[in-house]
Hints:
single chain; Beta-Lactamase; elongated; binds flavin mononucleotide
Amino acid sequence: MTTSPADEHDKTERKPLSNILESLAGNGSDEQRIETALLLGDRALAALNSGIVITDAQQSDYPIIDCNPAFEHLTGYGRDEVLGRNCRFLQGPETNQEARAVLRAALLDKQECRVTILNYRKDGTPFWNDLAIAPVRNEQGQLTHFIGIQTDVTSRKQLEAELREQTETITIINHVGQALAAELDLHNVVQLVTEAATDLTGAQVGAFFYNVPTAGHELFTLYALAGVAQEVFAEIPLPRDTPMFGPTFRGEGVMRLDDVRNDPRYGQNPPHLGLPAGHPPVTSYMAVPVISRSKEVLGGLFFGHTEVGIFTERVERIVVGLAAMAAIAMDNARLYEQSQQAIRLRDAFLASASHELRTPITTLLGNTELLQRRAIREQSLSARDQRTLQSIAEQAYRLNELAELVLDLSLLQTDLLELDPQRVDLRALAQRALARVGTNNMPGRLQLSVPEQPVIVSADERRLIQALHQVLRNALAYSPTGSPITVRIEQDANTALIVMSDQGIGIPESELDFVFQRSYRGSNIDIRHVSGLGMGLFFVKEIITRHGGMIEVQSSEGSGSIFTMQLPLAE
Ligand SMILES: Cc1cc2nc3c(=O)[nH]c(=O)nc-3n(C[C@H](O)[C@H](O)[C@H](O)COP(=O)(O)O)c2cc1C
C-alpha cells in the first residue's frame, strides 16, 4: 500500500492529540488503545461545529492534508476537492485584503493569528469566516503543520452592521432634531432635512420641492437639493400635477419604487414622457409628502438612485419620521416669520402714530403755556381755573412723554435709535434730570449729592437725562408722599456711578430678574392708582447699555429700592 505525503503527516501530526486521547482510551494492548484514541479524535473533530483544516507546513504553499466534516459543510467543498490545495481558494473578489495580509505575515513568522475574513462557498455565496490559525511543532521544536479553525460569523457580522447602521441613523436623527429645534429660518430647515434624509436613504440625489399651487403654472418650486448641484435643475421644468408627482403633492402617502420605469404612472407626461433632458438618471425612486399640523401639504421630499431597489422599508419609515419633524420645523419657521413681520408692522405703526401724535400735543402744550403766562400777566383767570389749566399742562406733558417713549421704543426695536455722545459733566446732567421731575414735589424730597470734581462721561445728554428721569419718576410714583429720594454721583478710577435710592414699595425678590424686561410691572403695584406701560426700565437699561454702562437694582419689598448705574468715564 502506498502512503501519500498527507498520510505521513497525518501520523506525526496526531501525536500530541493522540497522547491526550490515548490516556482517555483506557486499558488494553497498545495497539487497541491507539486505535481507540484515534477513533475518539476523529469523533471529536467530526462533532465540532467549527471547520478544521490541517496544512503541511513542510511543503511549499502549505497544502491541506485533512479537514473535518464541518469544514466541508461550511464551505460546500468535499474533502477530496480540497486536499493538496492552499486555503486561499476560499477567497474571492470582495475578500478583505487587510485580513489576508495579516494571515500572510503571521504564517511567514510561524505565529498563530486570528482574523475575520470574507470567504466564498463552492456555490459562490459569501460568508464571514472567523479564522484562527495555530502552528504545530514536533518534539524538536520544528514547525510541521498549521491547524486552522473556521467559524461562520456572518449573522454576527450582519447584526453588527445593522447595529452600526442604527446607531448612525439615531445619531443623524438626533443631530437633525437638535438642529431643527434651534432653526427658525425656513430655507435652512428644508436644506438641513433634505441633506440628512439623502444621507440616511443612501440616495444619489435628494430634493425638497415646495408646494406652490399657483394658478395657471402647474409648477412647484425647487427648494433644496442634496447630492447634485443646483444648476442641474435650473433649466428643468418640473410639473406638479402629473401622475408621478401629483399623489405626493396631494399628500396621498409615500411612493417607494424599486424601479420607477416599471411603474404605469411613469413616462405619461408629454412632452418628455419620462425624465426631461438633463435630469440625473433615476431608477430607485421614493417620494414622501411633508404635511403640516393644519394638514396642508407643504411640499415633498424626493429621492433617486441609478440602481434598482435601493430604498428599503426601514429607510421609508425613517424618512417619514424626518418629514414629520420637517413639517413641525417648517410650521415653526413660518410662524416665526409671521410674528417677525407682525412686529415690524407694529413698530412701523407705533413710530408713525407717535410721530403723528406729537404735533397736536406740542400745539396743545404751547397754547396751554401761553394761556398760563397770559393769565398771570393779565390776572384774567380765577385760582380755580388756573389750577385746571395747570392740570391740563401737566397731562399734556405726560402725554408728550408717553408719545416720546413709544417713538423711542420703536426706534430701539428697529435699531434706529442713534446716540450723539458728547463730553458731559454728570453732576450738571443729574441736576437737569432732577429739575425736569417738576416743581410740585415737596421741597427737600429730592436730594442730590455730587463730588467736588467734575465727573465727565461721554453721553448723549438728552437720552441720559431721559433715562435718569425715568428712574426718578418711578421712585416718586412708588414711594409714599414726602419720603426722601436720593441721587448720588460718584466716580472711581474708570467709572462714574449714579446711585438712586428710594423708600418706596420695593420690588418682590422673585421679580428682581425681570425688572428690566419689556412690559414688566411689579406684582405689588396697585395698577388702579399708578398707571404705566411697564416699558420705562427696559428703556433705561437699553440707554445705559448703549452707553457702554450697566444698571442693577437692589430692593426689598416694603422698604425701597436702590438703582445703581455705571458709566465709563470719558477718555
Ligand atoms: C491552516 C490554515 C488555514 C487557513 N484557512 C483559511 C481560510 O479558511 N480562509 C482563508 O481565506 N484563508 C485561509 N488560510 C490562509 C491562506 O491559505 C493564505 O495563507 C493567505 O491567503 C495569505 O497568503 P497569500 O497572500 O499568499 O494568499 C489558511 C492558512 C492556513 C495555514
